[in-house]
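Annex B. Sample input.
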Amino acid sequence: MDKDLTIYGESFSSRLLIGSALYPSPKIMEDSIRASGSQIVTLSLRRQSPESQGGADFWAQLQALGLTLLPNTAGCHSVQEAVTLAQMSREIFATDWVKLELVGDEYNLQPDPIDLVKATEILLADGFKVLPYTTDDLVICRHLVELGCEVLMPWGSPIGTGKGLLNPYALNAIRQRFPNITLIVDAGIGLPSHAVQAMELGYDGILLNSAVAQAQAPVMMAEAFKKAIEAGRMGYLAGGMPEKDTAQPSTPTLGTPFWHQAG
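Annex B, continued. Sample output.
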């Protein structure tokens, strides 16, 4: 029997983590999150001005859904900024979970690998359960695991691009290198088929936002992703047929018996 998604010792039956930004309305956001079946919803403190109590109504709306909240440090450009925002989120939401994001380049919003490792070390030492958003760099992932991360969140492609998995080889290498680490593809997922591909690689979950929030029918798309992730997971567990370089007929060669009749 398939085990649940495990994040720092907590289990979840849904393997979809969903964001709370960019929806056309609060009502559509709520309906989409419910349709997705997700049990974890991410939210950005930086965009809500927490230092002045901004965003309190929005946070209350999310908390009313009864789901696990995963604050993130989206928009941070320095180690100190990310650490401060994480500490603030722990006070506001009474959670030591944090999705750690550190922008390293404004052009493609690539995470800063060096500062990401530095901030991760500080936050882990401070008692946080860090879910680092990183590129698909195997060496950076190794450093994060060695620091004590039990979850890694490599991108499929740059955030908001919807290009899917640009480097399946790199993602597969991370999966093979860290068989006991929870791996979640975060960013770049644009279509349900992208989610299926990631799950078929053996990834444990998918985190997305724009693909649902900016769809023409967000609620329908949320349900589509729910089903896609379930299908991808089942395909991975079932084990795909091996690839071959030459064609092979699916029916026996003429004259070759393919059943035996009891005599």
